[in-house]
Write a structure and sequence with these properties.
about 230 residues; alpha+beta; Beta-Lactamase; six-stranded antiparallel sheet; 9 helices; about 15% strand; globular
Length: about 230
Amino acid sequence: MARRTLWITVGLILQILLSWGVTLARLSGATWAVAVASTTLMILSVPLVLNQDREVRKAQTGTVRRIMTRRLQGLVGHFHRTAPDEHIRANVMVADPRAQVLKVFAHTGLSPREVQTVWAKGQGICGVAWEEGLVQIGPGVTKQEFEDQRARNHSTPWNITVEQCEATQGLRTIASLPLRPNDDDGQIIGILNFDSRVDPSTSILAEVLSSDLYKALDLADLLTSAL
């Protein structure tokens, strides 16, 4: 976004200066002062134009987030009717190529702490799905499991940090699916996650992944429109 804004700024200023140069070449005397004043006002208006562009994109992103949240809620509602005793949640994370992290974009029922938690490539089940480009499903990590493995071999389950472990306490099964535009083999733009407080052996998340119901939501294409 910052790079796009920079190029828009440079393009507008160059266009204004070129127009200014052509105009001044045709003018003389007091008319120069009018031309300079007019051009100055045009340059000063550039930030206003860019700010309007940012506001439009911000509104568009908000709309996409609301639509995606409703679709996730509908999907989760379907799973709840299938397995009323298992509380499944869903979220979509967007891949930030500059910061090299995953950030929550839309969700159903995540806590503020979970929403604020970011994940690097290879970090957590979602990060492994991002790094390898493959669907991942596995158990959540308890604080005790985290501490035991760190004490035993100075590593952590799924390469997670203490903060990430604490933010996801209570989750027993997590499934992550890479999102690609047009469902091709191109760049991964986000991750669709499901989680449950039921152990993997009894969770329906494996069935969720094989059902392909989530594909009808067009989440990848929807997410692309917000980037």
